[in-house]
Amino acid sequence: PRELRGSAPVAMTIIQSFTLLLVWAALLAYAAYRGYKIFITLLATSPTPFGARFASGILRSFSLDDDKFFCADGAPEEIAKKRRAGMDNLARSFDEQFAASQKASETVLDGISDLRFTDTNRVPFPFQKLVRERLNVATLALSSEGPHIVDLDGNRSLDVSGSYGVNVCGYDNYKRWMEAGWQRTKDLGPVLGPLHPIVGENLAMIKAVSKLDEVSFHMSGTEAIMCAVRLAAFNTRRKLVVTFAGAYHGWWDGVQPGPGNERKITDVLPLKDMSPASLNAIRARKDEIACVIVNPLQGFNPNSPPPNDLVLMTAAIRKAADSETLDHYAVWLKELRKTCTECEVPLMFDEVYTGFRMAPGGAQQYYGVHADMVVYGKTLGGGMPCGVVCGKRELMRRFDPERPLRVSYVIGTFAAHPLTMGAMNEFLRWVTTPEAEQVYEKVGKQFEHWIKDVNDEMKAENLPLSVHNLTTVWTVIFNQPGRYHWMFQYYLRDEGIALSWVGTGRLLVSLDFVQNDFELLKKKLLNAAKRMRDDGWWYLGTPDKPITAQSISAAMGKEMAYNTVMKTVREGLLAEVLCLPEQTGPRAPKAVPPETLHEFYDEVMRRKEDDHAASHSNTVNQFMHLISSTIFIINYCTIWSNCTATMATGLFSLFLRQSGHAIFEPPCHDEEELLLGFNTRSKCFVVAGYTLAPLISLLRLSNDVGFFLTLASIARSWLGVTLFFVLGHTGLLWMQYGFRISMVWLIKLVTDPFTDVLVYYPSAVTVWTTKDWQTATWDNFLSHLRGEPKDGGAKSAEEKKTQ
């Protein structure tokens, strides 16, 4: 019927509209959902790794020279002398104590890039050059005796480095375990593939400690982390890995979102530690998260990277958690465990460092929290290199039973090496005994008492530092502002304390420490602190000029900003245009800021006289300066009322003025640099740019644009460029030499036209009869452009041909 035929298109239109509405509603709902997840993630994400990575890409390296090195915090000269004497004494002591080790390290170890990296990164980078030159840290050792290390020179150093976390139980124990392990496996030798029966014993003990189902053996902690993350992603079919700000999980770029990794990170999410927002982010993105990795040592310094002396630029950079914060961290781990369980997200403990150190059962036992996967390393090998992954059965599969071609390829040639398994077995058999529990408890109590005793004595001696610990892991905290706290590591080394390359940031005591060792360590620690105080490194200024955290931060910020800007600028064309003075070497200008107004006037006039002597001796050049300076004085009056006329006459006077320098004066690039101003070479570039820019703009004019209207616009731009050159150079001088020296140069520049007229007016009479016209040569001009020193432009034609 006609009525039905007419209603069909209407029905189709309604259906289409409804479908389109549903599609739009679905898209909006999805966008809102994604926006919510992004918002929740941003609230929980730590900016530290991204900020540090960004800074690492733009911050430029620089070194403080000998003078600034000792007064970088603003200390007066008498304190700088004490520090210099202290450095000299340390260097002399190092040379005497470690002569053989230093000589051997320069020859035997040359070419080991690992050592070059650690040696470079012991102290903040502005101080590295001089420290490496004066304080050579030897790295060769022959033997160990209890907690002492004997070096090539026969020195016995009390070791608190812990061999990067390996030494939990004492070197003599590890030597015994390695020997016993070798005796039990030597008949098999290096056979790989077939497993020694001892592996079965290790498997049972590791499963009992970890409370997990399966085990995978590897050769390092980093390799084990790589395996664990890959298995978690494979078995959950998710790609996102959650870490917490500052936590270290080995050098693999897959878990390193901060500096040290150049790969673009898209699958690592660094969240804030101990933050409810992080729990919300995990709930919101649970379907994307393969695992949440925790380094339990972060309870000692939440949301901060592992402490080391490389970044100890101020005292505020290093902090340690108090007992209350540690209690909160334990509660946080329990909340995190609950959230991961509810969201069905695997919780992974990275116990490469904390495993068997915080307790025989590691951080799981210490905090009372059990993870779905646990990674061990370091000490578990009984002195041999190892890495171990433990996990629930469903997380440890390396193949998909439903898809035979889908596998997670994780395997290693030296996994379960017989010698490693033998030493590991000896360690595990000891650490799982009641006797081991008693040793942990006894040494833990002794160490807690030692921490309190040392802090009491530090306070009694009015020394600005304290020690803090988490079980047998400890660090040195500095309780006052300072730029030289990193020097403490060298006084400790000189006292006979062995440290790792991270210095005083992360220190360890082993379970073989006895009371005499603790007393010796305290004595050496106090002696080093007293020596450093007496050498002036902890100087705090005077009541009227104190050295504060704010003043140190301001000085550091200025140094870093200046050197980053200067190095970046020096690598481009602006280095020529702004005529940047040399920073180091014999051509680096020396400038002493004037203290009084009279000294300021004298300094301005002295620079005018030096400028005259350097590049204004030719009568023709003086006459050109007389004309151009007269025009400049007129320009001062017309610059705001008639910018166009000022530009036209200013360009003419600049061209005239620079021609006098470039054609009639001999080159004097080096002397002009010492005056901190623009040299003839840079001024030639500036004048060329000034002249070409308006001409190019005028040539590009279309017929419908007024000539004078455009000229006025160009003139205003020209004025802006002029201010950029002048104020830019002034700002750079301010950054390098201070405000007063920059003002000396600016005042000299502004007043030059007036003094030129006063000094050079006699040239108006003598210029017509002088022989100075004959000095104009093309070679002279080219010498200026090449930036030759004064003698360079006076060479004869024969000399130049010979060259």
For the secondary structure, the number of strands is 18
Biggest sheet, open or closed, and with what strands and sense? 7 strands, mixed
Q: Taking all residues together, what is the mean pLDDT?
A: 84
Termini separation = 107 Å
Number of helices: 29
| Side-by-side strand order of the widest sheet | 4-10-9-8-7-5-6
Residue fraction in strands: 5-15%
Quick summary of this structure?
The chain is α/β, with parallel strands linked by helices and 803 residues long. The protein is 54% helix and 9% strand.
Give a description of the structure:
With 803 residues, the chain is of the alpha/beta class. It has 29 helices and 18 strands. A seven-stranded mixed sheet has the order 4-10-9-8-7-5-6, with helices on both faces. Strands 1-2-3-15 form a four-stranded mixed sheet. The longest helix has 43 residues, at 2-44. Residues 792-803 have low confidence and may be disordered.
Blueprint of the fold:
Layout: H1 2-44, H2 48-58, H3 66-69, H4 77-97, H5 99-107, H6 113-120, H7 128-134, E1 141-145, E2 148-151, E3 156-159, H8 171-185, H9 198-210, E4 214-218, H10 221-236, E5 240-244, E6 268-271, H11 276-284, E7 289-294, H12 323-343, E8 347-351, H13 362-367, E9 373-377, E10 387-391, E11 399-400, E12 403-407, H14 418-431, H15 434-460, E13 465-470, E14 473-478, H16 488-495, E15 497-498, E16 507-508, H17 515-534, E17 541-542, E18 545-546, H18 549-570, H19 574-577, H20 597-615, H21 619-638, H22 643-664, H23 669-674, H24 680-699, H25 707-737, H26 739-760, H27 763-766, H28 778-786, H29 797-802
Parallel strand pairs: 3-15, 5-6, 5-7, 7-8, 8-9
Antiparallel strand pairs: 1-2, 2-3, 4-10, 9-10, 11-12, 13-14, 14-16, 17-18
Helix pairs in contact: 1-11, 8-14, 9-14, 15-17, 16-17, 20-26, 21-22, 21-26, 22-24, 22-25, 24-25, 25-26
